[in-house]
Please model this.
Amino acid sequence: MAPLYTVPENIQKENTVEKKLAHLEKIKRTFFVYRVDAGSCNGCDIEIFAVITPLWDPERLGFKLVASPRHADILVCTGSVTRDMRYPLLRAYEAMPDPKIVAAVGACGCSGGIFHDSYGNWGGIDSHIPVDLYVPGCPPHPATILQGFAIALGLIDQKLKKTVYDNDDGRVPFDGKSILNNILFERDIYMESKSLMGYIHGRVLFKKYCGAMQTVRNAEDVAEVTELIRHLIGQEEDPRYAECLRVLHNNVYMQWLDKMMRMGDDGKNRYLIKGA
Amino acid sequence: MKILEFAKKEKMVTNNFPVVPYEVTDGFRGKPEYDYEKCLGCGACVTVCPPNALSLKKDEERGVSVWKIDYNRCIFCGRCDEVCPTGAITLSKEYVMCVLFDKEDLTVTGEMKLKRCEKCNSYYSTERLVNYVSDKLASTGWDKSMIEEKTKHLNICPVCRREEAIDNYVNQMTKRGK
Model:
């Protein structure tokens, strides 16, 4: 879909990896950075400005933001390329002195990001001009951007490598242990805690409840379990967890026991924990 | 001069970042870590991923299902973490993930063996998923007859399963008609 741009031969000749590395060794001054917004949502730009604040201070590593691409060594591009910003991007690229280092910042710059299948999107930066450094993130953390610059200069090595796992034995680790000898009980507890507190805190709640239940000798002993959960609620510092533990006990555990033992309403009501 | 005095009182605010690692706060949405040992290849994460950073493709020639994450496109929303039934993909606090030159360094691929249908011999699901389901059914505490009934259709593909269900239904109806 995107019209093709082939890098002119004289620029290609000056921009090989060997020439870039040689330039890196020769250079004895600050690196000048020029930023192009090729149609981003401004999230990545805000993070780039966060990087040049005193909190991160890239100038101690030797990076300075400049206002003209003619002064720049590094071209920082954000955003997926749009129709209107494609030509300015190419102009900035060609105006830079050789050798040019191009960094694509953000998910959109790397590959089109969340807008990759949008009608107004002409792909990531690398579908138009050759890119040297990829900084993923939506938007990337200031530390990620700074680390990217440091990698580009060879101050630190890159950590990630392409990984392929293919030693499949056809099984996943599975623990069939259950509190009530039926994993459907755990499923009910998990779904209820997820619907109560969301998936992050719900998992903490699930672990709290099941961790406590595993210490009971007989999980079908209603009196003992009720005493334990009461104790747990009393110890809990966060009132949200305390309330949700109570709901788990009353709604899920008591229903299961009622199903298994047919306690009847009177028997059940004795062991319900009342809210504050 | 007042500013210098003020600066003397305050400590230096600049992070000494590339030398000292920066500590992120709790709940930071960092790079999704993939645990290959736990992955079932069920594809729940692939269906929810908003930017299609995750993909699951069937490679029939080699008999594997190829799961792939592309961090270039990931927006770190955590939906995959939310839906994963075994916790194979979780958001970590990792923020160090820039690469030079090769985009493919930002991908992780996992290959899982596919299982053939016992009737028509075509691939229909991963071995891990089928084994996991049968393990789970075995530990539900149901009667043996009930578990047998449920696992009867586990080793055949959805198409054959549908045909068998129709056959069963027709048989029952004809018996009742007699």
